[in-house]
Specification:
Layout lengths: L1 E5 L2 E13 L10 H5 L2 H4 L10 E12 L2 E5 L21 H7 L9 E3 L12 E4 L2 E4 L5 E5 H7 L5 H16 L3 E4 L9 E5 L8 E7 L2 E5 L8 H4 L11 H15 L5 E3 L8 E7 L2 E6 L3
Parallel strand pairs: 4-5, 5-8, 8-9, 12-13
Antiparallel strand pairs: 1-2, 2-3, 3-4, 6-7, 10-11, 11-12, 13-14, 14-15
Amino acid sequence: MNQWNIGDVKITRIIESEAPWPGTFILPNATPERMQQEKDWLFPVFSDEKGKLRMSIHALVIESKGKRIIVDTCIGNDKIRSNPAWSKLQLPFMSDLKTAGYTPEQIDNVVCTHLHVDHVGWNTKMVDGKWVPTFDNAQYIIGGTEWDYWSHFEGADMRDPVEDSVRPVVDRGKAKLVESTHRITDEVWLEPTPGHTPGHHSVRISSKGQDAVVTGDLMHHPVQCAYPEWDDGFDSDGPMAKKTRRAFCEKYADTNVIVFGTHFATPSCGKIFKHGDAFRFAPHKG
């Protein structure tokens, strides 16, 4: 667990899992040999000695104006997934959430940056053979464009998370379908970052002159700051995603905005700075 303050806003990171991944699982160009060439700025925080990418699957709890907002709910337990490493998990995420000081009943909003499998899992839990909302007092904030696309998508890898982790929330009237500019509080709002998925958005935070942004999956790893045009195997619209990544880096480079990477390894946040005709990322420990 890590915690930060952005002005009056408190951010707490709840880790579901963290480990080195083969880079080519996500980024075809991120071979061990290629990653070794970036060792001077990525190792040891964001890559290991073998050139694997250090990755994390985590949620962020944001406290703002009396609201408790959880952003992206990881993979979840008990769910059958096509990736064996993510199937039928039994991880202590919920107990870790409670250790951090939050019970499911205390969460006011659940924000989904997009509806991929590793961002919606704890939206629901199994009760008496049915998937029901985990955060029963919360309003689930879901992009309308995102829901329109994935609710009709026929690919098997997406059908399962939609059916067991998103549709039960929608069917129970717990979801609010919003534009990707929706404001949650005066300090927290959504920012459109399409390309990874059709309705993907990031989460912007500003309080008392301090600023932060949660990336979602517009990038998976800091190396994409240096190479925003690298292919990402999970982008639904590659050209749009590359344009969005570069624009995001241009916007936030050399500013005081703390960037929270949704899959960035500990400490998971930092600042983007210009480097030649691209960018690099420096970790921020708070």
